[in-house]
What we know:
Blueprint: H1 18-33, H2 46-58, H3 64-119, H4 123-133, H5 137-144, H6 149-177, H7 179-188, E1 192-199, H8 213-216, E2 220-227, E3 230-232, E4 245-251, H9 252-262, E5 263-265, E6 277-282, H10 293-296, H11 298-302, E7 305-311, E8 314-316, E9 329-334, H12 336-346, H13 359-374, E10 377-379, E11 383-385, H14 388-403, E12 405-406, E13 409-410, H15 415-441, H16 447-474, H17 479-489, H18 495-499, H19 507-536
Antiparallel strand pairs: 1-4, 1-5, 2-3, 2-4, 6-9, 7-8, 7-9, 10-11, 12-13
Helix pairs in contact: 1-2, 1-15, 2-15, 3-4, 3-14, 3-15, 3-16, 3-17, 3-19, 4-5, 4-6, 4-16, 5-19, 6-16, 13-14, 14-19, 16-17, 17-19
Amino acid sequence: MLETEGVVPIEFFFRKTELIVTFLVILLGVAFGNLRIKGVGFGSSGVLIVAMIAGYFYQFEPIVILQDLGIVLFLLCVGLEAGPSFFRAFKQHGKRYILNVLILLSVAGVTVVAIITIAAVPTGIGLGLFAGAFTSSPALISALQFSPESEVIFGYGVAYPFGLLGVILFITISVKLLRGRMEAEVQSRSQMHTAVYKVNNPELSGKLIRDTDILQTHNVVVSGILRDLSLRTASGSTVLLVGDIVRLEGLTEDVQTVGEMLGEEVQEKFDENSELDTRSIVVENTSIVNRTLNDLGIRLRYNISITRVIRSNVEFVPRHDLSLEYGDVVVAVGTPYQLDQLELFLGHEHHTVQRRVDIGSLAATLFLAFAIGGLIIPVPTLGPFSLGLAGGALVAGLIFGHFGRIGNFIGRFPRNATAVLKELGLALFFVQVGFDTGQSFVESLDFQAVYYALYAVLFAVIPMLASFLFGHFYMKIPVSECFGVICGGMTFTPGLDIIRQADVSERPVIAYSSVYPVALILVIALVQGMHLALISLGVVD
């Protein structure tokens, strides 16, 4: 029998808070988004789906400030990532990107006006359906200027989840079907070939790479060596041993020739055996221009492998006597820390890339984002115009990302840091949007809403299909860039995650960023243009 005398009972209480609910939904949403069925999953959009379910069943109230902070963090990081190469790419590709966006929005406008007119959809609901299908807050705000608020909000609430899921499924299925074409396009960007060989030639055992004639007389670089289950970078002073698994990069014929002399080709996935990363770094430090790789001692100083140099869109294998020029893109392999150090060295200014996120610099970028987003500019006949928080965040990110430094504030952070901030921002945004739409979606449904949901899907998918067909097959824009333009034109940020599953380069992000600010303006003008068209057709009194 246990003694209970003198025991003081203690009761524990647990207080539910909005933050606990928010991060519980994020946890469940991430787990759901990571589920894959035949390689297809919702990814980060799983957070939105779980949030909508939670919002409907438990009537959680969205936290507006977290929603604003989330979308600002996400788009700010998108801008920071794209900023260093955005303006150069905009000069090269901006015109055809914007033309493709004009096709997208023109088809969208014709589709919306036609369906509203033919199906006798109330104008307010129709414009709300369009805003929801495009998941566009600026379009929603613009529509509220002309139509009853209740109609617009209802249309937006019905269309948002269907438009969102319709776009996600369209992009996911398209990427799945076109993956082969996308991979071929990625491969065609480079004349370089990569292959993995096992060293079996005993004559090469114990030799330094710089003393191995076949490696010095061919345009081939050893970008990594797998030895004793450990993957390491290679330099001229690295010793080759029989049994080494080496990764060769260079011109196809040279790689095959050198590989056959080393040993036999093997199928080995290097990425699964180490933390080595590949990074493209733009040469902007004027003090190293016109100096050779041997003179700079990059391989010895940073213990990294330089696999190729891109100059004027032409790629070639770097030799020790190659002189770097301003604007060259150096592709290097190494650990994240080593690559960060190399980026500091090659960048246009010392400490251009921070090894960590500086809180002062992050605060400065956020302040600029909110300041730009809060500007309201009166436009004759169109009324007040503002980029809003989303547009302000993207512009601020592009500015800091492009210049790298403004005063004492640094605008370029390690990629893993911006990736975490971007994912966190997207998750916070999705949770609050899910709570908001989940509460009103089911309650407002009736039989007519089924047709509205179908219209919302058509409002999203038809313009996307037309834009893709025109952009890819007529304007010859690569698939991943085409979808980047489409997501930017629709101001649909989650689509970038799906696209980058097949193309991890910066090209989709640059295409997205090139058109996003313009699309924000055009989508507002489009709503007003559709309203005027409906008036001229007699649909609106």
